[in-house]
Amino acid sequence: MILKLAATAIALALGASAAYAEPVKVGMITTLSGGGAGLGVDARDGFMLAVKLSGSKDIEVITEDDAMKPELAVQIADKMIQSDKVDVLTGIIWSNLAMAVVPNAVAQGKFYLSPNAGPSPLAGAKCDKNYFNVAYQNDNFHEAAGNYAQTEGIKKMFILAPNYPAGTDSLNGFKRFYKGELVGELYTKLGQTDYAAEIAQIRASGADSVFFFLPGGMGIAFMKQYAQSGVTIPVMGPGFSFSQDVLGAIGDAALGAKNTASWSPDLDNAKNKEFVDAFKAEYNRIPSIYAAQAFDTGNLLISAASKASVKDADAFRAALAAAEFDSVRGKFKFNTNHHPIQDFYVREVIKNDEGVLTNKILAKTFTDHADAYAQDCKL
């Protein structure tokens, strides 16, 4: 599907404009089918909203569905690079797909801008000058949750995540800051939907709280089964576990759950208010973390393209690294490994005035937080 967007009434109303030295062709590989489709749809919609609001006629986006399959993502990337002649790739949600696609793409001189997946190798020893992560490094949200659990004095934790790169990074990140007792640590199958055995282990564990990272349909299934099980041990997670894309499906079982993220719909800055209002107007729903990160990714690209030709790799790379765009997160800058240094917050699931489940910020848990792998990156 090719989406080439011209200026719109809303962009003109906002006074948006863009002038580029060179048109930019973007290949978006994301998940638009299966249990992870909600994440990819939000990422696509957030990115395309940024392009639309820019008023640009010079950014062309080719979007294809990876169906959560690494081998398919590789095939799509090869086609986009070799046949479609894209300048920039983006869109991948899942870290196992990113590890399959990114190293080969940047080796061919293409830029990759990540709106989500942030596996630790790409932040550390396998970092690359053409790879920029606009979201986070995988450990970050979980580090923030571990720090919150530690500062709250929770003595016994049960932790679980899917068995893939982001799952491993997740629990490693949590443990980096949580120093209490782990009464259980489980890696579940990626895409799993039956959690009866895991819930039985939680019930018997003696835990004071449960930390889980199960994005998309996995988290929906877990929370529904957890609520039905009668287990009353409170749960917490990274923002992905209680992101806007899953709250409606989880329902009231999510109310009161604490989670950690670098962004929230109620984050108080002008760009975020503009984004949330525009996203609601365009798509008739509250944006998720995935949409917010992709919106920032689109605006980073737009900022760089307004300063340098994408055909001048050194100049375009420098423009990306400068990150001179208004982020929905407020302040934003890249570390030496092209991953963000940013603040993180503790959020709580509530119902807003319209009765819609969403998140509100309770407190900040990290200020100007950097990932643990930048020291291993030789850029």
Secondary-structure arrangement, i.e. CATH architecture of the largest domain: 3-Layer(aba) Sandwich
Helix content: 25-40%
The CATH H-level superfamily of the largest domain is Response regulator
- The SSE string, one letter per element, is EHEHEHEHEHEHEHEHEHEHEHHHEEE
Q: Tally the helices: what do you get?
A: 13
Domain tally: 2
Report the radius of gyration as a whole number of Å. Answer: 20 Å
* Proportion in β-strands: 15-25%
**Tally of extended strands?**
14
Query: What is the general shape?
Result: globular
> What's the rounded overall pLDDT mean?
93
What can be said about the biggest beta sheet?
8 strands, mixed
In short:
This protein is α/β, with parallel strands linked by helices and 379 residues long. It is built from 13 helices and 14 strands.
Layout of helices and strands, plus pairs?
Layout: E1 2-4, H1 9-13, E2 24-30, H2 37-54, E3 59-65, H3 70-82, E4 88-90, H4 95-107, E5 111-114, H5 120-123, E6 131-133, H6 140-151, E7 156-162, H7 165-177, E8 181-188, H8 196-205, E9 209-212, H9 217-229, E10 235-238, H10 244-250, E11 258-261, H11 270-283, H12 289-305, H13 313-322, E12 333-334, E13 340-351, E14 357-369
Helix pairs in contact: 2-12, 3-4, 6-7, 9-10, 12-13
